[in-house]
Specification:
This protein folds into two domains: 117 residues, Orthogonal Bundle (Arc Repressor Mutant, subunit A); 65 residues, no CATH class. It contains nine helices and two strands; from the N terminus they run ααααββααααα. α2 crosses α3.
């Protein structure tokens, strides 16, 4: 591996670790939630009513771990289960759960903005382009967008008619898969 690539990879790793630690400490500690619980509340903010299994998939948990997570959030008064159709149960945030999700996103956003304070406008634009490319490359296939964006503030991502790079990667992947199918 080229020395520049190794150095940049190391810098990226150090920055990712520092940002992750800061976000976890600031946003999650405020509500005494682990990162899975915080991610679940943020997901439910924009997708109320998903099943326990689907919520677990988006957070990155097994079905049994997802059940335990929802049980914990329900005991804390942050979510409730509601019967949808037949035996299907959806998970919905309570009013307190919605407030918690908003607070988590606000705290996350403030922490991320602090990280970017030292950049001028041109540097921010360049970093934005590089991060879009990085996120497109991190996308792994159908269903991965939900997991990759589990802590995203979707309103911030798509502000001023911007396109979510992960959503764009998923649409491109699905379009190329459709093109590869032969007509029946």
């Amino acid at each position: 591996m080229h020395a520049t690539t190794e150095r940049v990879a190391n810098l990226l790793g150090a920055a990712a670790t520092a940002v992750t630690d800061d976000l976890r400490d600031r946003s999650v500690a405020a509500f005494r939630l682990n990162t899975s619980n915080a991610a679940a509340l943020i997901i439910l903010r924009t997708a109320p009513g998903v099943s326990v299994t689907e919520l677990g998939r988006r957070v990155g948990l097994t079905q049994s771990a997802a059940v335990r997570m929802v049980d914990s959030l329900e005991r804390s008064g942050l979510v409730e289960r509601r019967r949808l159709v037949g035996n299907l149960i959806g998970v919905h945030p309570t009013e307190e759960g919605r407030r918690c999700a908003e607070h988590l996103l606000d705290t996350r956003g403030a922490g991320l903005r602090r990280v970017l304070d030292g950049f001028d406008e041109a540097q921010l634009e360049t970093l934005g382009v590089l991060l879009e490319k990085l996120l497109e490359g991190l996308y792994q296939g159908p269903g991965h967008a939900d997991r990759l964006c589990r802590l995203c503030d979707r309103n911030a991502c798509t502000a001023e008619n911007a396109t979510c790079p992960v959503g764009a990667a998923e649409r491109a992947h699905l379009a190329s898969a459709d093109e590869g199918r032969s007509p029946s």
